[in-house]
Here is the input.
Amino acid sequence: MRRAGLLTTVPVLLAASPVIGFYIGRFIDVKLKTEPLFSIIFLILGFVAGAVQVAKVVKLANREPPKKDKNSGI
Here is the structure.
């Protein structure tokens, strides 16, 4: 169940990261009048950040949960 919960965040990460990056770049482009330079740069950075986060989530999902010690009383 834990693994399924972690893996359901993958589509959100893949969709949200580039969108947020694009809008940050667009904001900078409007302020500096450099369209579309920063929009493209931050869009690419958003894709990279999303991929890195997905890799971390998948690694975390594949890790075995710690075993409970029978003698610890927990």
Residues 2-62 form one domain. The helical segments are 2-7, 9-32, 37-62. The chain has one domain: 2-62.
